[in-house]
Predict the 3D structure of the following.
Amino acid sequence: MSTTNCMIEISTRHACRRFAAQDVEYELLRAVLEAGRLAPSGFGLEPWRFLVVQETSLREQVAEACFSQAPASTAPVLIVLVALVEALHPDTAFVKRQLEVEAGEGDPAPVMETYRAFYESADIAAWAVGQCQIAAAFMMVEAVHQQLATCPIGGFDEQKLTTALNLLAGEKPALVLALGYCADPQGARHRRAVAEVVRYLGG
């Protein structure tokens, strides 16, 4: 895809507020999920799980945990991005495996040392949620490419969502991504001017 075409697709992405009663084809859903799987992450840890919610009664529970917001209540697919917080402790098998993969043919020890220092100084739960949001951004761009609509939902009752999805101890819901076909045409986009948001430093 050319740079121009990519920018056109990004410029047409918008948060869909109400979805049509139309199922998402499996191949398109797979493409969106694959974009999230391939997203970059700090230290190559990929600290996420993607829970795909399509069954009606469970979707209703997730929507209720999202305060019954219209996008959550009308979307045929809800993708819940879950941060694997507990798995990120430096001594877990998960971290050891991921850092060995990240090191490739090199020695993973220096990477582990750097990560351990980071872990001890960071709010690891907040960091993991941020990593999940990177994956969500990749999904949203791919959804536009597949002519699907999305709406990221960060407002939810964490305990209700955790209970509805039977999340494991040490897992934290990071974002709910509503996915489907938008019922309404896109309205006007309003963004701050480049001069307001971009600063070139130095030089």
User: Anything to note?
Assistant: The first strand starts at residue 48 and ends at 53. The longest helix spans residues 124-145. Residues 3-197 form a domain with the NADH Oxidase fold (CATH 3.40.109.10).
